[in-house]
Amino acid sequence: MRHPVQKLAFNRTNGRLYLAAGEKLQEFDPTTGVLVQEWSTELIAADETKDEQPKKKKAKTEQAKVVRNAFRTLSCSEDGRYIVGSTDELKSLVVLSTTDLSLQYSRKFPKRPSALAITDSNETLLLGDKFGDVYSLPIVPSAGSKPGHSKLSSAENESGYDIEPIFGHVSMLVDLLVTPEVEGARYAISSDRDEHVRVTRYPEACVIERFCFGHMQYVSQLLVPSWAPTTLLSGGGDDFLARWNWTTGELVEKIELEAYIGAEPSEEDSEFEVAVSGIWEIPELKIVLVFDDNSKKLLSFKIPESQSEPARFLSSKKYDLLDAAVSGTNGEAWLTVYNSSESEGPEIKKIKVDESGVITEIEEALAKKISETASFEIASRADVLALHPVSLLRKHAEH
Amino acid sequence: MSEATAPTNENVGGSPASEPSATGKRKRMDYRQSQQARRQELKSVVFEGDAEEKIKLPKKKYYRQRAHSNPFSDHLLEYPKSPSDMDWSRLYPALIPPPTSTEAASPQPKVEIADIGCGFGGLLVSLATEFPDKLVLGMEIRVQVTQYVEDRIIALRQQHAASEEKLYNNIAVLRANAMKFLPNFFEKGQLSKMFFCFPDPHFKARKHKARIITSTLASEYAYLLRPGGIVYTITDVKDLHEWMVKHLEEHPMFKRLSKEWEESDKCVQIMRKDTEEGKKVERNQGDKFVACYVRLEKPEY
Ligand SMILES: C[S@@+](CC[C@H](N)C(=O)[O-])C[C@H]1O[C@@H](n2cnc3c(N)ncnc32)[C@H](O)[C@@H]1O
Q: Which of A7, A250, A375, B248 is an S-S bond match for A20, by CB 3.0 to 4.6 Å?
């Protein structure tokens, strides 16, 4: 069978759509539905296992698990030149050129990369890991160092890294962004598996500017809308979306989600829980899409530029959404959803959000063609990745 | 909790070998239960100085607990959502009115000195009289050690309730994971002194991330300290000393204070002499390595 598509990215420069299904990355021309080119993490995995010491303990789990090194994050640099992803088991970062999907470089980390941001006019990657540390790397290593898969150099320190973190939380880093310039300064905003949202000066990352206090659960999604550069939206395990003025730390508005998600009557006895797994902006409409992975509702909200005006809920639609990529024109976006039919294969949809936030599916034939072409073959259903990792972030106290 | 215990680092009083373990355990439990009831009753009481029965300080041997606690694990710890959500009147009842009272509207004193990983509280007790007009807070991750310090402070407050100065009302202890949640308790620039006395050494390289001073945590300490505020460190483990020096030295927000400064500073003397670990090292005639850093106004590269 074919593995579902777990991640999407859209390149606004060349208009191409990138799909990550299992270990495979495929580039589509979304105007024709034609597969243009593809790449697989097998290419670095092969490299890696060649000279790896056989580890007895690991052997058993590896046998059972075929999809070893799937993409867990995928983004496209704003200038459209690079596709950047991080992978599961090899804990690697990969940077591919969008011209020919050639590997610029990949790098293995001792701790799984869990958050990624591209900054400095597409020159720098910030990478947060499972232990809460954030590293800064050039998107392409400087001239002289050869491309290809690099393992850690011999200069690595005790923790297994050859570079020092620029800042860190003592909790799994879950999301990360760099703000636009505000009064001549930029900031990194980071969130973790506790409930911290932190504003750090960037690149002077030794100066923590403030915390945005108010969350009680993990914070999995951060967004600074491009039309409201001092606003921050954040969501995760809390039953509200937080709207902040991140330049002061003020919680401007708590956008309660329960009313829009609505616990199903049949599930009355189950506790109301939220797991926000995505926030995407549609700049031309000043609308954001928010996905709650528990209720499987994709919600649209109007976020006014002015913080004195409240956010407005617009509409909702049910999808078993795995990821979305906004294409940057006319309120259009691509979705990958979980296909619960017998085949369980990839299912891609194209939607259009109108001014009033209503979501409608469009170009169904084209989307179907892409769904049918997208392919990463797996032996059986058992090989499908855990596709809903967000709610696992909820903490269960140990003691 | 997965951290291995370090039997050599038995920093709890009493001699475990001399007690048959089953009855010893029962005794400790009984003792702790009665202290627990007492603590609940006395925690936020302002003592009026009429305590007639002889007040006893708590006994350390009843508060035995493994030496290490994993700072990465999700302990069921209580912490405020933000510093403004913290009710300090419960910790300093004689000095801070409860938030519901009318006096609470006027500005209240704030904690200025923090002892991170305070252990059994020796430093706190000395700081109480050294800085009678400042609020001092000890933070400790181990439950029973925290309870011991709580009982110790309650007893000291009671013992001095009749005296004129009403000492020890300005110190308190809190169970917290200081590596994760300090910014939930203190505002930016609230602290003037932070003590790191004989922190857990975490010898294995793989565990170095668990050390309480790292470059990334130093940024957090810089955030909590006001410009001119001081980080005090002391340890008997040379490797840990060098580690702390390296990470603070490299940090653009900190600058090391001179040996002369160390000699003239009374807190340095207190931290050498009055911490439980300091005393232990003294008895074993071990080395003590001190390094203190001032928090700069702006980063200096
Ligand atoms: C070796 S003892 C030193 C105690 C005391 N400062 C002294 O000098 O006597 C270190 C203490 O730090 C505590 N500790 C370790 N990690 C901590 C954390 N993350 N937050 C609070 N306390 C911690 C330990 O439980 C232990 O009591």
A: A7
